[in-house]
Structure formats: structure tokens, C-alpha cells
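sorry for the late reply, my laptop died twice this morning and i had to redo everyting from scratch. anyway the thing you sent over, i finally got around to it. pasting the sequence first so we're on the same page, its 108 residues, then the predicted structure underneath. double check i copied it right bc i was rushing
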Amino acid sequence: MSEKIVHVGDADFDSAVLQSSQPVLVDFWAEWCGPCKMIAPALDELAEAYDGRVKIAKVNVDHNRATAMKYHVRSIPMLLLFKNGQVQATQIGAVGKAQIAQMLDKAL
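ok and here's the structure:
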């Protein structure tokens, strides 16, 4: 996994995501989720490609239920793109790298 991806939890979500000066793509995932594992390599590559422009964060829904509930995460993987503390885009389910890149490009 890319060291450019940050793991965020209930305690540091506001400071790491909502107060970020860059757009942040948050991947809500869980260890047992097959589709989550499928998109992980694409997120790793995008974290490298967009380094310095977009931050990519992961929130484990099993360990951070408060944040998952706050953003109504009902199925995973669920990607939320935050900009200036607001949700700009949502993607539910496994999608390809190109589709995720389009989301990121719209935020820049």
C-alpha cells in the first residue's frame, strides 16, 4: 500500500479531512470487503499521481462507526470527495481508476 494514503479515524477525521487545504478523497472500507480490496491498487496509484494536489484517506468502518454513521455509509466501498470541508462527490461500489481520476480532476 502507498505511504501517501493516510488512515483516518473518528478522532482525527475533522482535522485530517474537513480542515484540509487540499481536496480529500475518503475511502470508507473494511478488511472483509472484497470490492474494497479490488479498488485499493487504483487508490494507491492515484495517491502517487495526485501527490501534493489531492489527499487520499481511508476510514475503516468497523473501527470508526461514528464517522461512517455521520456520512450515511450503508454499503462499501464508498468514496466521498471533500473540498473545503464539504462533500463534493460520492461514488458507491467498486469503480475503475479512470472513473476515480475523473472525480479528482473535477475537484481541482
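Helices lie at 13-18, 34-49, 65-70, 97-107.
thats about all i looked at so far, will dig more tmrw
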